Amino acid sequence: MQELVLGHEQTLRLSAFLGVLIAMALWELASPRRRLEAPRVLRWSNNLLLVGLDTVIVRLAFPVLAVGLALKAEAGGWGLFNALDVPGWIAFVLSVVLLDLVIYLQHVLFHFVPGLWRLHRVHHADLDIDVTTGLRFHPVEILLSMVLKLGAVAALGAPAAAVLVFEVLLNACAMFNHSNIRLPASVDRVLRLFLVTPDMHRVHHSVIPRETNSNFGFSLSWWDRLLGTYIAQPAEGHEGMRIGIPQFRTRRDLWLDRMLWQPLRGPAYGSPRGTDDTGTARTKPEA
Question: pLDDT tier at 181 (50, 70, 90 boundaries)?
Answer without folding.
Answer: very high
